[in-house]
Every structure is written in structure tokens, then in C-alpha cells.
Amino acid sequence: MALSSSIHPILIEDANLENWKVIGSGGFGQVYKARHHKWCCDVAVKLLHYDDGRSSSLLREVEMMRQGSSPYVIQVLGVFKGRPPSSGPSAQLGLVMEFMERGTLASLQDSLCGAPPWPLAFRLAHQIGLGVNFLHSLTPALLHLDLKPSNVLLDWYLNTKLTDFGLARFSYSVTRASKKDSEEEGGTISYMPPEAFDLSYSPTRASDIYSYGILLWSIVTGKQPYANALSSIVRLRIPQGDRPSLEEIRSQAAGRAGITGLMELMVRCWEAKPDKRPSSFECTTMTEELYKMHKHAINDAVHQVLKKLDQKEEESLAEHVERFHITQTSGVNIKNVPTGRPPIQEMAGSWTSNSRVKDVPSPQRANEVAPSQNSKCIFKASAPSSVSAPGFQP
Ligand SMILES: Nc1ncnc2c1ncn2[C@@H]1O[C@H](COP(=O)(O)OP(=O)(O)OP(=O)(O)O)[C@@H](O)[C@H]1O
Ligand SMILES: [Mg+2]
């Protein structure tokens, strides 16, 4: 599949975008949701922290990404140049992408506090494989190099699209330079192949396949690999052969179609030697077969999860309305209170110092779970989520 070259990316300016809301932030900078008023749809805008002189090559790369299209890979719609609300006087650059209403696989895992129902787990595994296979089939192949749950976006019906593919190689200079060491790794390190810790590392398709194997483990268990280990230990132990534990998955496999197959696939993907790992084509051929076994139950599984997500959203809206109501009936015009806490807040028993902090106006996060709700799991999903905390497996 060849990409045609294009000279000019579609430029999207301030005038086209309205209703900016912060939805997240990562190594590249802040991500906003905004409405493109001519296209009549929401878009996601990923702003770059700053231009260190390499942004132009980054944008060329983006334009290349824009040429290929797959239902399992995020569509880059253009390049933003302008001044988003409450930014400084200088124009900023960013990527404009389709907006994915259900956030990321990472946020889904947080909400579920575990793994999704099996049919959905198998579909996630397959669709992510399809996305990787698409990138690897391009000429020249596009390596993702940062496969992890926060780079798997979900549409309204929980179908996946990969994002941030091909950007990892820019990430050190453009993005990570401003971050502290602990932040820098941001979960990425657990998905990195053993060869990536070598000074002479040169990434290949097999690097993505390793990360895909770890991602499969995370989907099936609903957990983050090596969640309790220090990153310095992870760096040391991965090249020595440690991998996430399979014990809990094994204990679920009996009598359940496809689990052993999926487990075998993840083990092949995280082989120490890159040339022993399967190709993305082999992976998708396999996941297609596995998903077929569960496809008949996919609608029920998706419906079950969506109902819970919507219910949670309603509860959080109701919470907000409740707090708004308390403020409104107080009779205190908050705007006219120059300093200090409004007296009514002292009287309302439910107000805590924390809730006051949350009420300080801040940019709205459109598709993120608020920290206060993050701790509430919407359900302990059926089979996959019942596995206990993973450890290391020698
Ligand atoms: N196209 C999109 N549609 C909807 N939400 C998005 C989109 N792109 C990003 N987001 C949101 O923005 C958040 C931040 O994304 P970002 O890629 O910047 O950070 P990250 O993936 O957590 O870290 P990293 O910088 O390592 O990729 C995501 O977690 C997601 O909630
Ligand atoms: Mg990302």
C-alpha cells in the first residue's frame, strides 16, 4: 500500500474552531476537544509543547499519516496553527484529529476496574492487531513505537483506533525534554521490548509486536503490567526475560473458548528475540479466528459496558447539578465575594476542603473521568477482571 506524497497539509485556523475544552495532556502537550463549525463536528486538537525546530519535519510526517486510512487508525484531519483560548500571544502548532467519544482504552480500564467482558476483550485484541497490521503494510512501513492503552482510542461503540503512531521517534526532542524522569516514562516503559534498552537499538516491526503482546495481556487482565515495580527494576528485568504473569489467565482458560490461543499469541509476541515474534499479519489472522468464536455475543457485551458507562456519566452529572443547586439556593452571589470562603460553604455539611478545591473554575475535561470518580469502579467485569494482581514471571 503506497502513500502518495502531498506538499500542503490542510491548515485549520482559529476561526474554524470554537468551544475549546481540555480533554487531556500527554508528552506532546495538551489535547483539546473543539467544534469545527464548518464541518459541523467535534475534532480533537493535539497542541505541541513548543517548536524546537523539528516541528516542520513532524508536520511532514503527519501529512504522510494523513494519506493512509484505515478504520482502525485515527484519521489526522489537518494541522492547526493559531492561538487556542487562554494560551500566550504566539501561535501554536497542533494536529487536528477525529474526536473519539469514549476516550482511551486506559480510561475504559480505569472505569471498569478490570477487564471488559470476553467478547469485547477479543474484539479489542483483533481491532488493535488490524491497526498495527495496517501501519506495517504501508510502503514504507510505519512503526508505531508507542503501543499502550492510552494510545488506543475508542469510538462511541468501543471500536478502537490507534493514535500517536510514528510520533515516538520525535518524542524525545519535541516532548519529553520538558518532563521529569518519572513522568517521562508514563507507562511506556512496560511496553518497550528488551532490545530497546540496548544502546544500539534500532526499532523494527518486531518492536511493535512485542508491545502488542504486552497490550494483549493488559486487555485480558484489565491491569497495567508491573504495576507495583519501580521503573528502574523494570528496565533491568525485562532484558533478563521477566514478563507479566500468566497464572491468573491460565486459571480462567478452562472451558472458555480462545483464551489459551490468546495466551499463546501474547507469549509469542513477547519473545526475547525479535525474529522469533510473529508478524502483524500472523497476529491478525489468529485474532480473527479467536474473535469469531465470540462474535455472536459482541452486541450484548458492548451494550452491557455502554450501559454502565452511561449510568456512571449520569451519576456524575447528577453530582454536579447537586453541587450547583446548593450554590444557587445559598443566595450568596459568589462573584461578589472578594476573598475567602463564602459563608454558606461553611454551613453546608457536605462541603469538604477537597470539594472546594474542585469548584475552583478550571478548564473542562470533556471525556475524562474526574479524579473523584476514578476511584469508583463501575463494575467488576465478568471473567477477565477476576484475575488477581500480576507479578513477575521468570
Ligand atoms: N482523537 C482523540 N479523541 C478523543 N480524545 C483524545 C484524542 N486524542 C487524545 N485524546 C485524549 O487526550 C489524552 C492525552 O493524550 P496524549 O496522547 O497526549 O497522552 P498520552 O497518550 O496519555 O501520553 P503520550 O504522550 O505518551 O502519548 C488521552 O488520554 C485522551 O483522553
Ligand atoms: Mg498518546
From TrEMBL:
Region annotation (Disordered) ranges: 347-374
Keyword Nucleotidyltransferase found: no
Gene3D superfamilies: Transferase(Phosphotransferase) domain 1 (1.10.510.10)
UniProt: ATP binding residues: 46
PROSITE patterns the UniProt entry points to: PROTEIN_KINASE_ATP, PROTEIN_KINASE_DOM, PROTEIN_KINASE_ST
Keywords: ATP-binding, Kinase, Nucleotide-binding, Receptor, Serine/threonine-protein kinase, Transferase
Top-rank lineage group of the source organism: Eukaryota
Molecular-function GO terms, alphabetical: ATP binding; JUN kinase kinase kinase activity
InterPro entries documented for this protein: Kinase-like_dom_sf, Prot_kinase_dom, Protein_kinase_ATP_BS, Ser/Thr_kinase_AS, Ser/Thr_Kinases-Pseudokinases
Sequence ranges assigned to domain Protein kinase in this UniProt record: 17-291
UniProt family annotation: Belongs to the protein kinase superfamily.
Descriptive protein name: Receptor-interacting serine/threonine-protein kinase 3 isoform X2
Organism: Betta splendens
Protein encoded by which gene: ripk3
